[in-house]
Amino acid sequence: MTSRWSHVLFDMDGTLLESGDAIMGRIARTFMEYGAAVPDREELRLLLGPPTHEILGRYLKPEQLVEATAYYRGLAEADGMSGLALFDGIHDLVRDLHDAGIPLATATTKLRVEAARVLNHFEIGQYFAAVQGADPENGVNTKGDVVAACVRDLALGTQDRPVMVGDRIFDVHGAARCGIPTVMCSWGYADEREFAVAYTRVSSVEDLRTELLR
């Protein structure tokens, strides 16, 4: 198998990982804890994608953000892998990309340590050449920061042809900061209007396989 792409960067939530209900539940619990009204399900779904502090910052007071972000992350740690699953076909696709010699990376705004824990839990960590996620202590917060960290870890040069695979407009914008196009997956959490800015759209894991492996 060959590919038009030299490297593949994967978002996690809504792309590799079905995690929407778990994340929306934690967001709702955090809002209730800090006295904010809980949005309806559709509004909550569209909150999935940005870093946690950005999501909470839309509804909470600035002085609440540090404590509320820590509270949310405590919920995530306590929940562990409850409510999480790989989308059907993702395990085999990741393995086959690796076996085809295509270096893989995660580019998620989950905490980096959490991203590594998820990959290892679902037994796909061994297929990734780089695991990048939010790392606030080192100034890695936004999707663009994470993609730039992947570029560094993978030692990407001008001759390489990397692609981002994600499900939200935040993936497109973050990858574009590094000149990387994005394939958007329609099984994630995007509003329909977001797909117009992607390099291309895929509606199934098999379509994604066709795009990434030739």
Structure characterization notes:
There is one protein chain. By secondary structure, this protein is an alpha/beta fold. The chain is built from nine helices and eight strands. The protein has helices at 20-33, 41-45, 52-57, 65-79, 90-99, 112-121, 143-153, 169-176, 205-212; strands at 7-10, 17-18, 85-86, 104-111, 130-134, 162-166, 182-185, 200-202. The protein has a six-stranded parallel beta sheet, sandwiched between helices. The longest helix is centred in the middle third of the chain and has 15 residues, at 65-79. The protein is globular, with a radius of gyration of 17 Å. The model has no long low-confidence stretch (mean pLDDT 95).
Q: What are the key terms here?
A:
single chain; 214 residues; alpha/beta; 6-stranded parallel beta sheet; two-stranded antiparallel ribbon; 9 helices
